[in-house]
Amino acid sequence: MPKPKRQVQRLLVLGLLILVAVLLAYKYRGALSFDAFAQHREMLLAYRDSHYVAAVATFLVIYICIVAFSLPGASVATLTGGFLFGLFPGVIFNVAGATIGASCLFLAVRWGLGDWLSAKMDVSEGRTKQLKDGIDENQWSMLFLIRLLPIVPFFVANLLPALVGVSLFRFVVSTGVGIIPGTFVFTSVGAGLGSVFESGEMPNLGVIFEPQILLPLLGLAALSVLPILYKRFSRR
């Protein structure tokens, strides 16, 4: 099949996936909210207690779909993982669901657009070529940096690597390891939701920006930048 025709077909499939994601986000916009979670928490606990393995499998499938289709509700899903399964193994389930879902999105974008865009950037000139070369030269550092910094939206961190030709292995490893600190924090918040519900309060989702949490994350991000700085100053 000629390359232009094959590329058009890939773009059509990618466009269809985007349409499905938009429709799902519209249809389930209320079901993936914290209010819906709080309303059905007793039912969720009862299902977990009577069908633990099925509850884990269902939770993982839902989490993967949320991330893969970039649906709103990833934070609520992480809280749910902590609430249902505790800090451990809840954090393991959350990291697994987020990593698998992100990898699915990464593969879909790379299959539909990433290879073509990466090739275009390789033959381009100026700042675009410099940006592509900079990312290629420091892939590990850049991948960990966008995962560790809480200011980078999760779906953006899933899309950018696919658009610049990052390998699947590097993407999976950097995602699985890089999201552990933030996921650990939100899972711990979810694990303590029982007492929050009893007191009639709302969980503090801004806890990740508090100094005792944010400063260690920024420290890890700074460590990921050190190889880039070392290369630059060693050349000078």
What does this structure look like?
The chain is mainly alpha-helical and 236 residues long. The chain has one domain. It contains 13 helices and no strands. It has helices spanning 3-27, 34-39, 41-50, 52-68, 74-85, 87-123, 127-137, 139-148, 154-163, 168-178, 180-191, 193-199, 211-235. The longest helix has 37 residues, at 87-123. It is globular.
Give a brief description:
With 236 residues, the chain is mostly helical. Helix content is 82%, strand content 0%.
Biggest pleated sheet: none
Number of domains: 1
Structural class: mainly alpha
DSSP E strands, number: 0
Q: State the helical fraction.
A: over 70%
Q: Count of helical segments?
A: 13
Percent of residues in beta strands: under 5%
Question: Roughly how many Å apart are the termini?
Answer: 48 Å
Average predicted local confidence, pLDDT: 76
SSE topology string? HHHHHHHHHHHHH
User: Rounded to an integer, what's the Rg over CA atoms?
Assistant: 20 Å
Shape, principal axes of CA atoms: globular
Uncertain runs are none
